[in-house]
């Protein structure tokens, strides 16, 4: 069904199965669509018990507004902002590790921060079983947040996967898979996207029939707390690119891993491969787990020179973000700090010391192992 939507809103199209009639929200015919789009990716949006306790108000509700206050401008400034929702929105009782469940207010705050798309295929998506998976989907739908990775049933998956996003004249196909769900299997008829080459190849082929400008695979993979990608990650990245995926964004290890901008020797096309963005927000305190990356990917295409314009990477880069925990700041809530923010000077010395350790370790790792991708500078 065609819908009339105010031009100030994002235009998203959640895809139907390849045999169904394609539903497209038409863009304005008054102006030429922009030839650029900026995609923003962050890692794991987690919710440990200490975060629940910190966000709880005297009225028994939850307030997460301070958490994203310093990153909201950057997130909302992107054309598309994508995060990994690594916690079910499963209803009471709420809980932290090992079986996560966050209140609805957490999802409200994530949307308010500017996130447009959330990934749901990860090892914690079944922490509250069938109820948690289905209620998470219900909440995402009620807030009109497009998502990808988990589904009520096979029919819903056929209708909605791969996720096809329309924005700024671009068509972006988004894939999402997880290595496991902590040994818990989805209850019938629920579907979780697992890393399975046979299924992934079918999904890539489906995506290609829609002729997207790019296909992006968001992978929940790798080994926890390992700062270098495993052999399996590298081999799977190679395979995905060989099958037609354009860019790969990874999560799960809870630490940052290196990234590469590969150039195809025949076509000259460039492919961003980010092995792990690390944590975005969490209560983790183990070395290198208290921060992560905001990765930005700017794409460009010249719509005036060809009936099938070539999309290219105009720019890609990253900046660090660090989670300030109340035990360091003496504030009530957790706050995400971009590590180049002037607000850092207001942090207590103990907090600044931990932030500086995270940044020093992360810069050393990425300077040594990154290929073709550098830190964004103000």
TrEMBL record:
Keywords: Signal. It comes from Bacteroides cellulosilyticus CL02T12C19. This is Capsule synthesis protein CapA domain-containing protein. Residues 38-284 form the Capsule synthesis protein CapA domain. It holds the Pfam family PGA_cap. Belongs to the CapA family. The keyword Lipid metabolism does not apply. Residues 1-22 form the signal peptide.
